[in-house]
Amino acid sequence: MKHPWPPAAGTKRLRRKFSVNMERTVLELRGVSCLEMNDLFEPKKRIMTSRSFGSSTGQLSGLQGAIRHHAQRGAEKLRAQKSLARAVLVFLKTDRFRPDQPQYSPSLVVELERPTQDTREILHAASVALQKIYRPHYKYKKAGVMMLDLTDQHRQQLSLLNTPQTDEDPQRSQQLMATMDALNEKMGKGTVRLRLPEKNAPWHLRCASRSPRYTTNWDELMRAYTDEDAIKKRKSI
């Protein structure tokens, strides 16, 4: 009986075509230990949040909403792994599957004044980057924000110019962000945000074909009808 898994050469091809994680997954399924438990909880060296738009848009206001959303989400992930970012990258992409449209895929890195996990500072840097790379007359299909040059918040290198007053600002910032995260964890993700997102914005995902969320959303629970209820419903139609 032939072994169901590909030979070693096959895993090398998987690594070249996909990634080292794919190769490790196949080897793990074979019973070859490749992943240490600590590897799964290693802090990321960079954090990216991005998403393709429900429909293409060339409006700056729509792109600003998408960048704000990704920047806030990235800052939350940054705080979750107790890291600080030294720089923020913002990128835009047009639809590469539409060769009939002009293509433009810019990106820009903005260095932060100090390593931070404060959503406000990250939002400001992301907004500056977007203003510099945005060009009208293009239809953008994707945008994203990446946190770069991450460092452990407990191993931050302090400046010789720091004073007791400058040390108070990060402490107040950390307390504010911790309060926001605690409220969002208790009341639901997105309860507390900096500036509400625009409703029905082009960058929102289209979910017309999504299956009902029977087990996670009270408003979408399955409904049971009796024969009498079904008859009344048909008559009303």
UniProtKB/TrEMBL annotation:
<dbReference type="InterPro" id="IPR036775">
    <property type="entry name" value="DNA_pol_Y-fam_lit_finger_sf"/>
</dbReference>
<protein>
    <submittedName>
        <fullName>DUF4113 domain-containing protein</fullName>
    </submittedName>
</protein>
<feature type="domain" description="DUF4113">
    <location>
        <begin position="174"/>
        <end position="223"/>
    </location>
</feature>
<feature type="domain" description="DNA polymerase Y-family little finger">
    <location>
        <begin position="44"/>
        <end position="160"/>
    </location>
</feature>
<dbReference type="Pfam" id="PF11799">
    <property type="entry name" value="IMS_C"/>
</dbReference>
<dbReference type="InterPro" id="IPR025188">
    <property type="entry name" value="DUF4113"/>
</dbReference>
<dbReference type="Pfam" id="PF13438">
    <property type="entry name" value="DUF4113"/>
</dbReference>
<dbReference type="InterPro" id="IPR017961">
    <property type="entry name" value="DNA_pol_Y-fam_little_finger"/>
</dbReference>
